[in-house]
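Researcher: Predict the fold of Probable periplasmic serine endoprotease DegP-like.
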Amino acid sequence: MKQPAATNPRLLTSLLVAGAVMLAETGTLQAQSTMGAQPGGAPAAASKLSGPAPVSDIAEGLLQSVVNIATSQNVKDDDAGPMPQVPKGSPFEDLFEDFFKNRGGEGSNHKVNSLGSGFVIDPAGYIVTNNHVIENADDIEVIFSDGSKLKATLVGTDTKTDLSLLKVDSPEPLKAVKFGDSKKMRIGDWVMAIGNPFGLGGSVTLGIVSARGRNINAGPYDNFIQTDAAINKGNSGGPLFNMAGEVIGINTAIISPSGGSIGIGFAVPTELAQNVIDQLRQYGETRRGWLGVRIQPVPDELAKSAGIKPGRGALVSSVIDGGPSANGPLKAGDVVISFNGKDIMESRDLVRSVAESPIDQDLEAVIFRDGKRLTVKVKLARLQDEKTDAKTDEQADPKAPEGNGEQQEDADKTVLGLGLVTLDDENRAANSIAESVEGLLITSVEPGSQAEQKGLKPGEVIVEVAQEFVDTPEAMAEKLAKLKNDGRRSAHLMVANARGDLRFVAIPLE
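Model: Structure tokens for Probable periplasmic serine endoprotease DegP-like follow.
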């Protein structure tokens, strides 16, 4: 007799195995469901090994605060230039005539339109964008996500950071976004950009922080956040958000050979932008500090002596006459290690730190001078626009221009491969050296020497050796011998070009 199915040993074994698998899968699913939920049924944060959680909830709450900026500018038709010369009977003759001759006559105007992005920072109607979005605009219109439009007025602009502040009069309070702390952003953190690419309207893109502290030579205070979130033409002036929905940057520039996004975009961090925007709102302009010095990167040998890592700090190459540091606590040759409580990680950090610090107040600077660290009090003046070209706290060119002196065979003495003579009225005039420059004139440089490798040239003047003035070749040789006996491996020379611009050069003593 055939056994009942329920008591068939093989079938029973198969059923037991299948049941065990089902129970295991059910338990796994239940465990996953439990692990993926928080009390109250809220979904848990995405695993570190998975992609980011959807940003739809974040974006939905921010789209109303991001606006499109439409500008128009009246341009004289004469600015377009004369009509191109085309052959008589050319198929393009009528086209050019219509365009160049039928525009309202000589001296008439036409409008040029452009589009960008911005975001609301105050319900009262204050809106942030880029300066290049609204520059030279005759009319500025703000377009909101619901399609409503309002005329905007310019409150203030700052070309050095490419930021502008606008104001609209709205019958109802606007929805604003908050600034976050860009200093907390780490490479790899998720960020979201919202803007108006190619005039399409509010668009959301997602990416990460690719790098921080980027210098793209856009201005003296470059400190960009680099991101791979898609940023295109029209995104300029729009916000870059963290995953808390806070603005941590203002999208400003891209690198692209095609004009479209290739994943390299740059945003002004809020750590720099917020202070600028606050000043524009309060004063309608920026009021930056001015230290009145020129600086350059710290040579590695001097950094080692100062007890700092290579590349850190800022070397004061000269003090500007009439500036706040003239006859003050800072002098040429000082290495600034920190300023107003902020470590100077590289020389350009000092420029930004000074610009952001209050004026007419005693501020502390930690410096390295004569082999020891000192804390000095400095007071900043206000940086005026007329000073920005020639008298700003600036990075000195580490390689000064060549002098126009000629090599002389009758140099008094050769030191470190340099032919040197005392600077006097005759050789000063022959080399067109400024009256303010004193020291030793370089008449020749030995080929292949350390001096040549460091970029020293005939016509330049050695002013100081190890922060001591020298006016004869013998005095310089004695100073170098003393440094060598003291165990120094290099000598730090202050060198001036014919105009009097100073730089520091470290030359090995071996």
